[in-house]
Amino acid sequence: MPILETPFARLDLIRQPEQANEPLQAFDAADEYLLAHLHEQTLPANARVLVLNDGFGALAASLASHVRVTSSGDSHLAHLALQKNLARNGLPSDSVTFVPASQVVSGPFDFVLIRVPKTLALLEEQLIRLHAQLAPGAQVIAAAMIKHLPRTAGDLLEKYIGPVQASLAVKKARLLFATPVDKPAPVSPYPTRYRLDEPRLELLNHANLFCREGLDIGTRAFLPHLPQALGDLRVADLGCGNGVLGIVYALHNPQAQLTLVDESYMAVQSAQENWQAIHGDRPFEIRAGDGLAEQPPASLDLVLCNPPFHQQQVIGDFLAWRMFTQAKAALSKGGELWIVGNRHLGYHHKLKRLFGNVEQVGATPKFVILKATRTA
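Structure tokens predicted for Ribosomal RNA large subunit methyltransferase G (376 residues):
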């Protein structure tokens, strides 16, 4: 496993979720570039530093012994990685304060270090929340690999912070320096809302939600095939997003016991607000988590899932396969996993290998809806 060596620390870092023979490292050249630049600034020991979207804790763990660090992001897996990497490198768990993106950070901060996220709406919301949180003379620095740095990121920094200057490229990474200037308090365009026609619902979506402006086509294909009138089953909406699958299932199954889980804090926040707007005080469980890793074995009868095919900028089926494995462990004998997926992803073969018993319950030209039954 590669070691992150910077002027601040020498760290052995891991990604989350862990996998055998991990092909990717937990930091990149943008982290190294940003830390090297910071070292040239001679950080005061009492400086307050805010780190945004620190993928696996590389920035926060590097600075934890030198300044007061607050880390904020929307990924529960990133938070888990930070906790594990602090412990792995002998750093106190309280040496970094973590604030989920569903909550507002509390400044003032002397330095704000931003890893540019894939979803620029999240960046925009984070920059809006920085209003009145910056100390006099604060530095705001964004970092990214050039291939993941859209021009819009600089435009957002200029709109909400101030004039932006780009660094030279180093190892295909670049820094953006934004000079804070006084600006009127901005009004956030988030959360957004959209309506469903069938069933007739309005759904709220915080900034980092996938398909924030409208129902994604996979879920649209899935909804007409959700099972109905199944009584008081224990049901999980795995990777719940704004909660639409679990919420609609609950409408058709008024006795069902629902658990909604997502690794995005803003997804959980959206799903919670949507559930309460539609179902009122009907009991349910909701949490930010590493899928169903915390779910007791054989504690569910049904799992609904529209699995993701990327983690940050990395595309692949590793997360989906992991969710299928977690679902099998959490299902009781005879329990079912229902998923929707693109035809070309070949989920039928993967589920057949894992569950044995798989059938197609619906299809569109692009998607298939599959049911896998735990037989043992």
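Confidence is low (pLDDT under 50) at residues 310-316.
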